[in-house]
Input
Amino acid sequence: SHEEVATMHIDVGCAYRRCWRLPEALQHFEEALMIRMRTSRTERKAEGEVHLLLGQALLLKREYEEAHVRFHMAGECFATSSSSVPELLSVRVGLAQALLGQKQTTTALKVLQELKATAK
Output
């Protein structure tokens, strides 16, 4: 099935990320995202999970602007689905890290304050 192929790409991407082979990890995460976006049955939460993985890998590559975009997209996907608090917290942490990487300290602090409110 399409979802099994997307999951395989996610698993392979995570394995590459653990080995710090970030270009390969990003390639597999992008492939998973494309499959999930094309599959109309897939809910937004599944799409958000891949955006989150992409954002985390991009942080490791220090591509903060693109990571920021991915975390924002993940947040939008999770906001329109039945997402758990840990997923929302992961988005906020990633967003704060991306903002700090972009030297946007004040905005990062606001995101962290939102994170604190979400965690309660």
